[in-house]
């Protein structure tokens, strides 16, 4: 059955479409800023005024959604600038929605890009505190909702945050706003280029007191289970490539839409090897995206979304 391209098409089990893709956007303060991220070639820190044009391009490729990350002008211990109604992400949401009203704007909810210490929670005496962080996450989600976000994606890995954000959104009239939970998020070396992009590497210690141990798989099921109980609408596995087994398990054990995050290091490794002429970067990246879909994710957050979109549109 492999001898003819026509038959191969008929028996093909998995296909990737632009509908499966979510493009991450880094947005920053200022005007007319388009700063290429050196460790993530082809990706930029963009000021809000440039996002209308960016959103139109993404939409023209058939990609339905973006996820926003903010690089704020000021940081403090509590990540207060994350709650600013006039903050980087809040302004970005408004720009994108006014340029492309149909674009699904997802926002990453986590304070690490807004804190001086770079941790995802409130820190006291060198320790990241779970419960005191929840209030801040609820306020951040609400601030994104008020700015017009279409979906909230908490990536902090504090226990109980999905339930807390759900309650806070419901109480303020945002009962229809879905939550995409970063449910099984591992403490991973693959986040290196992202932390470089956001200047959010932790000042002390690492994230292993709240992100998952890469050695664990059953624990991922418990983490997803908790988020489902707390009313997450979509569950996510992150990173994707070294965790295809986790994506597969989650898809099989839960009747839930599953997202996977093809993270910065997974992207930049391929770009770097392709630059050296060691691999065909486009071919490898499409193979990676297909494998993530095959493992069970219907949504893939990827820095390669625009390139993949172009290829899929032929
Ligand atoms: C936390 C967050 C991170 C990523 C997405 N959300 C960084 C981290 O946990 O250190 C990483 C994404 C990537 O590497 O592409 N706000």
What key attributes describe this structure?
single chain, 314 residues, alpha/beta, TIM Barrel, 10-stranded mixed beta sheet, two-stranded antiparallel ribbon, 11 helices, 39% helix, globular, binds ligand PBG
Short description:
With 314 residues, this protein is an alpha/beta fold. The protein is 39% helix and 18% strand.
Write up this protein.
It contains eleven helices and twelve strands. It is of the alpha/beta class and 314 residues long. The protein has a single domain, classed as Alpha-Beta Barrel (TIM Barrel). The strands form two sheets. Strands 1, 2, 3, 4, 5, 8, 9, 10, 11 and 12 form a ten-stranded mixed beta sheet that branches. A hairpin with a 7-residue loop joins strand 2 and strand 3. Helix 2 (51-60) crosses helix 3 (88-99) and helix 4 (130-147) packs across helix 5. It is globular. The mean pLDDT is 97. The structure holds ligand PBG. Ligand PBG binds next to helix 6.
**In angstroms, what is the radius of gyration?**
19 Å
What's the CATH topology name?
A: TIM Barrel
Q: Helicity, in percent? A: 25-40%
SSE string, helices as H and strands as E: HEEEHEHEEEHEHEHHEHEHHEH
Largest sheet: 10 strands, mixed
Oligomer category: single chain
How far the N terminus sits from the C terminus, by CA atoms, comes to 25 Å
Please describe the topology of this protein.
Blueprint: H1 5-11, E1 21-28, E2 34-36, E3 44-47, H2 51-60, E4 65-71, H3 88-99, E5 104-109, E6 122-124, E7 127-129, H4 130-147, E8 151-154, H5 161-171, E9 180-185, H6 192-198, H7 218-229, E10 234-238, H8 244-253, E11 258-262, H9 264-275, H10 281-295, E12 299-302, H11 305-312
Helix pairs in contact: 2-3, 3-4, 4-5, 9-10
Ligand PBG binds next to helix 6.
């Amino acid at each position: 059955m492999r001898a003819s391209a026509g038959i191969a098409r008929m028996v093909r089990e998995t296909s990737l479409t632009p509908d499966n893709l979510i493009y991450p956007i880094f947005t920053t303060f200022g005007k007319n800023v388009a700063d290429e991220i050196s460790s993530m070639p082809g990706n930029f820190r963009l000021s809000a005024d440039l996002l209308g044009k960016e959103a139109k391009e993404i939409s023209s490729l058939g990609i339905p959604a973006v996820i926003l990350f903010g690089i704020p002008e000021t940081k403090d211990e509590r990540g207060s600038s994350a709650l600013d109604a006039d903050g980087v992400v809040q302004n970005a949401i408004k720009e994108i929605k006014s340029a492309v009203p149909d674009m699904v704007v997802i926002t990453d909810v986590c304070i690490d890009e807004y804190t001086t210490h770079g941790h995802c929670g409130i820190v006291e005496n060198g320790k990241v505190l779970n419960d005191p962080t929840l209030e801040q996450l609820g306020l951040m989600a609400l601030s994104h909702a008020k700015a017009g976000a279409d979906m909230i994606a908490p990536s902090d890995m504090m226990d109980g945050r999905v339930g807390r954000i759900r309650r806070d959104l419901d109480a303020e009239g945002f009962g229809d706003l879905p939550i995409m939970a970063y449910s099984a998020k591992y403490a991973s070396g693959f986040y290196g280029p992202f932390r470089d992009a956001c200047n959010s590497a932790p000042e002390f210690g690492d994230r292993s007191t709240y992100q998952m141990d890469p050695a664990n798989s059953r624990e991922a099921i418990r983490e997803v289970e908790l988020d489902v109980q707390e009313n997450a609408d979509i569950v996510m596995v992150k990173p994707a490539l070294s965790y295809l087994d986790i994506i597969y398990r989650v898809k099989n054990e839960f009747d839930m839409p599953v997202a996977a995050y093809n993270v910065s290091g997974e992207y930049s490794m391929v770009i770097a090897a392709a630059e050296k002429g060691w691999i065909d970067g486009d071919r490898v990246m499409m193979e990676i995206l297909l494998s993530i879909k095959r493992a069970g994710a219907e949504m893939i957050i990827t820095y390669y979304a625009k390139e993949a979109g172009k290829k899929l549109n032929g």
